[in-house]
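[09:14] KT: can someone run the structure on this one? pasting the chain below
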Amino acid sequence: MKKVVLALLLLVNAGAAYAQLTKTDEVKKELQTENKDTVLWSHGGSVNIGINEGFLHNWPAGGEIASLVMNGVASGFLTHFDHNNIWTNNITLAYGLNYTYSNNFVPRKTDDRIDFTSKYGTKMNNSKDFYFTGLFNGKTQFTKGYNYTATNWKDTANSAFFSPAYLTLAAGMEYRKGSDISLFLSPIAARDVLVSRFYTLQSPVGAFGVPYGKTSKFDLGAYFSGRYVLNINKNTIFKTRLDLYANYLAKDRTDPTGNVIKDNPGNIKVLWDNMFTWKATKYLGLALGATFVYDNDVPYINKTPETSSTPPGNNLGWLQVSQVFTLGIIYTF
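[09:31] RB: done, structure tokens below
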């Protein structure tokens, strides 16, 4: 009899635990589109890894004899809900390498990004969707970047880890509709650009907006960051993000050679990031991403290779573009 009672108690407890877990999962799903008064942690994300390989032998049409392209994009979020307070953390990591026979399989980067955002918000009085929010954002890269069109490109590194690094600290108001929609606006946002002196000494105008021979540049301005997630269906998701920054301190300056570098608060810095993912099976699918950047501190320089051909995208001018297509493993959590 005691064994029967014990078994029944275990079943009741297991059922209660399962019901609580199910309820928690339901609340987390509702938190994607609604703001609720609750206390819990929520997390999720995805990892996309793609590998493309090619081999040719005695091929009349010609082409690269052997090539291998590997790229990966990982994104995730961690959010803590505490009644009227919300702490959200988002991170995006991307890296890609290209190996070809004609280049002796020396790897060349195709993508390299680190982007982290942390926000803490307190709900405004008598408001359901508006929060007083503080935000921190940091952007940099993993490894050195090179101008592969140069003859001795190994000796012409133009960027590296934390060179540059863009650090933004802002306070303002956020409109939030669950985790799928976030619109943050700050009238006072401090922004620091960090870069090694090695890179600012390579040009009389400095690098990444940091003056010649300096290692940092401080900006103070207005900042907007908008994020939107569209769950098209169970296996298809589109994510987009738009960041805008206007520097109140922007003004014309003169480089060591006497050239005037034009700038003003109207030169708004723009970042527009997009990612489309589709899962064909539990672990296989595709991801298509495109990032567009406009920054007056990184002017367009016509770096034509030492050939008669024109590099693709040469007519885009100052617009910075990064596009990636990954067909391979997709893991969501």
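[09:33] KT: thanks! The chain has two domains: 1-30, 38-332.
[09:34] RB: yep, looked fine to me
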